[in-house]
Amino acid sequence: SYELTQPPSVSVSPGQTARITCSGDALPKKYGYWYQQKSGQAPVLVIYEDSKRPSGIPERFSGSSSGTMATLTISGAQVEDEADYYCYSTDSIGNHGVFGGGTKLTVL
Amino acid sequence: QVQLVESGGGVVQPGRSLRLSCAASGFTFSTYGMHWVRQAPGKGLEWVAVISYDGSNKYYADSVKGRFTISRDDSKNTLYLQMNSLRAEDTAVYYCAKDSNYDMMMDVWGQGTTVTVSS
After folding, report:
1. CA separation for the pair B119, B116 (Å, rounded)
2. How far does the CA of residue B109 sit from the closest CA of chain A (Å)?
3. B42 at the A interface (CB within 8 A)?
4. Would you give per-residue pLDDT tens digits along chain B (119 residues)?
5. What's the Cα-to-Cα distance from B77 to each of A3, A6, A99, B80, rounded to whole Å?
6. What's phi and psi for A64, nearest 5 deg?
7. B40-56: b or e for each residue (b if 16 or more CB lie within 10 Å)?
């Protein structure tokens, strides 16, 4: 079955730039999406279609994709950005969803 | 505002069945596909199933195919997940999520309901 691979953890100091990567063989042909999940809460969409930001999401969140790698960038990370981040996409056919394993972002 | 409220979770013995519900409000339910996603304790998100806006297409993760059934009742604005032959590894928080009607993207999530499979 199709898999998306993320690093388990990323750590930055407040104000630094955090980058979280997601690799998958179908990403050259399929959009990547990013969800933020804070402890005890439901996930929230922060990036869609590789690089678009939903309304209400701070401008410091951005996304990009190149080849088999999608990247979530948080420019000037804040303490409140501490959360688990999941990339999401579909298999090559497009009828099965797939999440990456998740990346725990620590900002301290 | 768009709202999704899951219910039906609980403690169930291995091999038994359980049906989850997701009540939707704040949008025209019958025009959107819907998903179920689960999260085992301390683990990541796992996509479980999707149903199209008209119920004609349903797709499942390999881990639940043949045991779980996704369905919808547009007259009640409610999504369901019938879970049969439950296993310990099905223990998780189950979320329903609204599809954006593009590219299987989930744009709104409920708060989840907890299922524990244990003897």
Report:
1. 10
2. 7
3. no
4. 999 999 999 999 999 999 999 999 999 999 999 999 999 999 999 999 999 999 999 999 999 999 999 999 999 999 999 999 999 999 999 999 999 988 899 999 999 999 999 99
5. 33, 36, 27, 10
6. -150, 165
7. eeeebbbbbbbbbbeee
The two three-digit tokens of residue A37, written as one number = 């999940």
What φ, ψ does residue A79 adopt, rounded to 5°?
-60, -35
Please tell me the total number of residues recorded for chain B in this structure: 119
Tokens 């299922």, residue located: B115
Region for B45 from its dihedrals, namely left if φ exceeds 0, alpha if ψ lies in -120 to 50, beta otherwise: beta
DSSP symbol at A5 = B
DSSP for residue A52: B
Cβ <8 Å between A97 and B111: no
Structure tokens at B14: 């291995």
Q: How far apart are CA B48 and CA A28, in angstroms?
A: 24
What is the nearest CA distance from B117 to chain A, expressed in angstroms? 20
